[in-house]
Structures are given as C-alpha cells and as structure tokens.
Amino acid sequence: MNHTRGIVLAFGLAVSLSALGARAALAQEQEIPPKQHWSFAGPFGLYDPAQLQRGFKIYKEVCSNCHSIKLLAFRNLADPGGPGFTEAQAAAIAAGYQITDGPNDQGEMFQRSGKLADHFPPPFPNDQAARAALGGKLPPDMSVLAKARSVERGFPWFIFDAFTQYQEDGPDYIHAILNGYEDHPPAGVTLPPGAEYNKYFPGHAIGMPKPLNDGQVQYTDGTPMTVDQYGRDVAAFLMWVAEPTLDARKRLGFQVFVFLIVLSGLLYFTKRMVWYEVKHQS
Amino acid sequence: MSEHSAYRPQSAFMQWLERRLPIAGLVHSSFIVYPTPRNLNYWWTFGGILSFMLGVQIITGIVLAMHYTPHVDYAFNSVESIMRDVNYGWLLRYLHANGASFFFIAVYAHIIRGMYYGSYKEPREVLWILGVILFLLMIVTGFMGYVLPWGQMSFWAATVITNLFSAFPVVGDPVVTWLWGGYAVGNPTLNRFYSLHYLLPFIIAGVVVLHIWALHMVGQNNPTGVEPKTPKDTVAFTPYATVKDAFFIAVFCLFYAWFVFYIPNYLGHSDNYIMANPGQTPTHIVPEWYYLPFYAILRAIPSKLLGVCALLASILLLAFLPWLDTSRVRSANYRPLFRQFLIVWFLVVIGLGYLGSQPPEGGYVIAARVLTAYYFIFLLIILPLLGLFEKTKPLPNSISEAVLREGLPAGASAPPPGGARG
C-alpha cells in the first residue's frame, strides 16, 4: 500500500517540478495578451453589428492596403449574423471595387466594378508582388486570421477554458498586437532592419509598421477614436470574417441544449421505472 | 426474466421471411432477449456510445465528402467553403472534427473499463484483440482525417508521422516514398489519405460486427468479474440495457454538444487555420490530443528507431494483455494491489499526454522517460508478477450475492469504479 503511494507521489513530483521549470521559461518568452470584453463571448454572446461595421471601416481604410481577405464575399456583408448592411449597401460597397474578370470574347482580361457575388480583391496580384512592394515582407491573408492566432494558455488554465468557454484568444491577441507597439525597444534589444518592437509579437520583432494611431479612422457614432477601441473593433470584425456563422451556431446550440436536457431527464426517469422491479425483487 | 425465449414471428409475412432469412430472429436474440449481467454500471454504456459515434462520423463524413476537394491547392479553401457557403456546413464540420475527439474519449473510457474489470481475460481474448485492432484502425483513420483540411498542422503531422517509417533500416526510405507517392508529402499523399479515410470507417464497421459477434459468444463481463450463473444474475438486453444506454448516450451528447456549439476549436490547433506551407515549419508540431501519450513515448527514447519501436509496442502490447496478466481474478475490485498499480498507470498515461504536448526539452524529457519506463514496466513486469504474488479478496459466489451484499440497487446507481471501494 505505502510503496504504491510513494510511487504516485514521486511521479507527481517529477511531473510538476519539470512543468514548473518550463512554465517559468515560457513566461519570459511571451507576454500574455490582456483579456478584452467581447460581445460574442460566452454561450449567448453574439456579434455587435455596429462594432463589425466600425471594424470593417478600419479594415477598408487601413488593413486592406496590405492584407487580403480572399474568402470574404461582398454578399457576406448583408448576411444575417454579420455587420448588418442591407443588400443595397453591400452592393454599393462592392461597386466601389474594381474586379479583374475575363477572359472576354477577345481573350482579354478586363476590369469591371464589383458585384455582390465577388470576393474582396486582394491588394497585390500575388505573394511575390506583395513581397516586392513591402521590402520582402508578406502580410498574411486575414480570412481566418482570428482563428489562426492563439495564446499559449498552459496548465491548468487550458482546463478552466473548457468550462468558461474561453475561445477569444485570437481576437485578444490581435487587439494586443495593435496596442503592443513601443517606440523604443527595451535596453539591450536590437531589432533587425525594417522591424519594429512589439510587446506581444512572438520574438518581439514585427515586420508590420504600427498601423493605427489615435484619431486615424473617423467614427461618426461617438465611439472613442483610440487605438484601444480600434483594436477591439477590427479584431471583432476579423473574428466575424473567420467565423461568420457564430451567431447561428450559438442560437442552435441553445436549442440543442434544451432538447438534450429534456431528453436526458425523460430517459433517466424511464430508466428508473424500467429498472424498478429489478431493484426491488431479490 | 432473462430466460432465452425463442423468437416466434406473429404475422404471416414475418413467418414467411423468417423461414428464408432469419434476420428478425437474429435481432431478437442479439438485442432483445440477450442476457446481460444485472450489475453493469455506466462504464458499460461506452460500447453503445462508440457505435453511436461511428454512425455520427460516417453520416457527417459522407456529407462533408460531397463538398470537399482533395487537392493541395483547393483542400483548405474547400473546407472553409463548407464553413461559409454550405447550409449547416459549419455544423457538419464541427460535429465531425469534434466527433473524432469524442470517439476517442469514448474508446479510452471503454479501454479503461476493460482493463479495470479484467474484461480481456479468458474466454474474452479474441473479443479484446478485435478491440485493439479497432483502436489501431481508429488511430490510422483519425490521423488521415486530420491531414485532409491541409492546414499547417495537417501537413507537418503527415510529414512527421510518415517519416517515422524511415527509421527502419534498408526498407525505411523506399517505404516512405511509397507512402507519399512522391519524394515529399504532396498531392498524391493527400489523395490517398482521402481515399483511405473514406474506406477505413467501413472496415471499422466490419470489425465492430466481429467484435459484437465475439461478445455475444462469450457474454459480457461485469463489475464482479464472476460469470452469471443463474437467470437471477442477468436481465434482458431490452429494455434494461437499451434504456440505460439511451440515457447515457443522451448525457454524452450534452458533453459533445458543449464542444460543438460553444468551444468548437478548443481541441484543435490554431495553426491548422493556416494553409499548409512546405517552406515553413511550425515552432512546435503536435498531434491531436488523443495521440499525445504515444507521441511522448516516441520522443522519450533518444534513438529514432527504438522510439518508433516503443511507440508501436505501447499499442501492440495491449493485445497481449490476456497473457501478460497472470491473475485468475478478473475485477480490480478484488485485486487491491493491481487496482493501485493500474490507477497509477492510467495517471501515467495522462501525464504522458501532457508531456507529449510540451516541447521535448529539459525536465519534460526526463519526466517523459520516467513515465514511459513505468508504462512498460507495468505491462511487462508488474502484471505477470502480480498474478503470482498478489493476495486477492474473496470473490462473491454470484452476481446476485454481490448485489445483495453491497446493499445497492442493482445496476441502477452503482458508483463508478474509481470510488467504488476506497
């Protein structure tokens, strides 16, 4: 008896000690982005259309100069659970873009204005063109960026996350990056040429110059025009771009839960009734 | 109530059919009057849950296959198109991706139950070996499925795992080239993985039929490990087991729905939302969570060849459990030492899973080696010796006696094995 307890204790100790050491090493490596409040967090959280519209404005005016969103179509802007543009508004936005189409009957590619069915045209025709224009740097496509970035949570936090439904580490990270620029890197840190110092970027040397400054994008609804607010709005927009069916998912999820809880309850009492005679015979 | 009543067709049509194809009689004897021990606890519901999950995976998978494009240039975007443009495509994909995880949760629970109650012992050896074959098929199927979305983790997991075969001398490199269908993981690899990922679930379904057939030959084990002796020890499969299985499948679905609807990407890796890029290796390549213990064993061994052998042995050894375990007593409830060593072994496997998710450096490597050593020492040394030296508790004469002695309602609320007897 006692020796098996000893074994358990020894294993537990070995694992936790090594884990502790590695946690400490990891903590030095990466700053943890502060958690933000998101309207779409939690079991009933849905997107805030006004916030998505503000985020779209930032994307259109700032991000889209370098970053593509190839998987987003103009028609998506009018989809339910999105930024809530009307179909006419979405068509007007589409008409503002020039799309390369073709080949036509003469075998030529041609330019025409965008339609609802078109996808957002990328700022560069290909990756090589992007690199050539941006000093060798390739801005990632933003279609699923908010789900492609995460925060290393580590033990035991990753277990709590399953219960608290924390799924917003991607948007938290994007917000943190936009707010993590520092004019002067800490003493002793030298950056490669063309890089800037970002507190939250892995390795801290980020190729993207600080994209947003206070007051840069005009809001007409009285929302504060700060980098903090811009970061939240554009991160929410990018989350919607990455997961446009979140609202539908959470709504259906609640219905499924109500159904399954009722079903489980009925089956439980059916089971008790069926087993009653077995329980009370012998 | 559990006496075998022969099937007597009522209607003229069923009588006509029964003389030509006795399928209704087969269903009657296998799923209606089939006697099941009356003291089964909820750990015995995972067989039904696994059948249910296999059905969910096949149905969602067939629909997903209608919308998926197995080509290196289109696979990633076709999955995203399922998420965006296919009606309820997001639901199908999240059900399928999380379904794989819940399939493995259920199979691990099923294996834990089998090991704790000694379900692999005589006369259930073939039943157990078929189970290990099913587990292996699940591992291969799950791995190939993970490659299909063609994200960064898909690509690099495929590269790392197929490369393991290169550890074998002489045949290694030709085998890897043959698996890839080229000199690197590429379009031919993706195509064959897709083809096999569609094929293997049906092979799994076939082996499941054999598994259930073998089960119905030897009958179910039970928490006492004592075979049913009189009709008082058993109840009919329907309604007793069916209603209990149905209840627990519904509870399992609640757990499953929590992940599908609220945290669908929790069990995935964010890097798999980046399209596969052979020119850029991710910082840490990690497999899906259900392979992590085996991945930790692989990396714990300094030599690549020995690591691959240890990885294979860690799974294949399970097939030999009926002979590695020399004790004649089945249930851990009557084997105090075995029970403790086994629970430590389960904890060690969880520990290995955690270590498999961490970078292979420093203390993690040392811990993984210690835990790997216990994994094999338990199977190869402790198990055979325990049977010779362990003093077991007296077994009840029958299931009914055990039920009465325990003073618990039969089956209805038997506690889980972990807390059954402190």
Give a structural overview.
The complex is a heterodimer of chains A (282) and B (422). Chain A folds into 2 domains: 2-253, Cytochrome c-like domain (Cytochrome Bc1 Complex, Chain D, domain 2); 254-282. In chain A, 46% of the residues lie in helices and 5% in strands. Chain A has helices spanning 2-29, 49-61, 87-95, 127-133, 145-148, 157-164, 169-179, 227-242, 246-279; strands at residues 98-101, 110-113, 181-182, 196-198, 205-206. In chain A, strands 3-4-5 form a 3-stranded antiparallel β-sheet. Chain A is globular, with a radius of gyration of 25 Å. The two termini of chain A are 36 Å apart. Mean pLDDT of chain A is 90; it is low at 13-28. Chain B has a single domain (29-407), classed as Cytochrome Bc1 Complex, Chain C. Helix content of chain B is 62%, strand content 1%. Chain B has a two-stranded antiparallel ribbon. In chain B, helix 11 runs antiparallel to helix 12 (304-316). Residues 409-422 of chain B have low confidence and may be disordered.
Q: How do the strands and helices of this protein lay out in sequence?
A:
The complex is a heterodimer of chains A (282) and B (422).
Chain A: H1 2-29, H2 49-61, H3 87-95, E1 98-101, E2 110-113, H4 127-133, H5 145-148, H6 157-164, H7 169-179, E3 181-182, E4 196-198, E5 205-206, H8 227-242, H9 246-279
Antiparallel strand pairs in A: 1-2, 3-4, 4-5
Helix pairs in contact in A: 2-8, 7-8
Chain B: H1 12-20, H2 23-32, E1 35-37, H3 46-67, H4 75-84, H5 89-116, H6 125-147, H7 152-163, H8 172-180, H9 187-218, E2 234-236, H10 237-262, H11 292-300, H12 304-316, H13 321-324, H14 336-356, H15 363-389, H16 399-406
Antiparallel strand pairs in B: 1-2
